[in-house]
Write a structure and sequence with these properties.
Elements (H helix, E strand, L loop, with lengths): L11 H7 L3 H7 L12 H8 L3 H14 L7 H9 L2 H34 L5 H37 L2 H31 L11 H28 L7
Length: 238
């Protein structure tokens, strides 16, 4: 049996930090654990119209089923225990590199599907518009992190002087705002694609496009969770 216990006052992000498998549960129930994860579970559930006791029971049942497995307690601590330099390297190598490789390829799929099917699936026009904005936002965001913000974090780790702290505080606040913008676009994409569900008679490219968009959402939520809820709190906050 798991020793993990959750209650209504736990922040959604804290639950995922303690029990990473909860991220799958929250994702399935459309509960934001990254951009909007810094709020009590009860508040997040009220927004989604979900019953608190049922969710707590299901989370505890899920934790019990995964008690003792390698990816339970070990994974729940691995990112928290990383020093900032190691965590930043992980974020860049797993998530930033993924975005640079995947975003242009998804763009090709999105554009093609809209060109071929947009005349009868009218929502595809908006899908392409939203995705193009998201791609631009994410690529600009990751470049800024690597060139400006992450080096500032490394400097602050060494000096912890007030001037660099004030500068970093403003920078982190800006990054969190950009995370919110990306999260809002992903929510709109999920909504207008019916949870990334292609039509029954959809062609292979259509299906692949939705699959890649769903994977992009999953990777982005994990990416933002690592930054908003584990990396950023180590530094001066606004």
């Amino acid at each position: 049996m798991s020793t993990l216990l959750f209650d209504k006052e736990d922040k959604v992000s804290e639950i995922v930090i303690k029990f990473p498998k909860a991220s799958d549960y929250f994702r399935d129930h459309k509960i934001d654990f990254c951009c909007g994860g810094n709020r009590p579970l009860q508040e997040a559930l009220e927004e989604r119209g979900l019953e608190l006791n049922r969710v707590l029971d299901e989370l505890h049942h899920l934790a019990d089923n995964h008690a003792g497995l390698d990816h339970n307690q070990g994974e729940s601590n691995v990112y928290v225990e990383m020093d900032s330099a190691t965590l930043i390297h992980y974020i860049v190598s797993k998530h930033h590199d993924y975005l640079r490789e995947e975003l242009p390829e998804i763009q090709k799929n999105v554009t093609k599907v809209n060109r071929v099917h947009g005349h009868h699936d009218l929502h595809l026009v908006e899908v392409e518009e939203l995705y193009t904005a998201l791609k631009s936002e994410l690529l600009e965001h990751t470049t800024k992190e690597e060139i400006e913000i992450f080096p500032q974090m490394m400097t602050w780790d060494e000096t912890q002087d007030s001037s660099s702290g004030n500068k970093l505080r403003k920078a982190i606040s800006g990054l969190e705002g950009e995370h919110d913008e990306a999260g809002n676009i992903l929510k709109k994409l999920r909504e207008i694609t019916n949870d990334f569900t292609p039509p029954v008679n959809a062609c292979t490219t259509y299906r692949l496009t939705y699959e890649r968009l769903a994977e992009l959402e999953r990777m982005t939520y994990e990416h933002v969770h690592l930054e908003n809820n584990i990396l950023f709190p180590r530094y001066p906050q606004a």
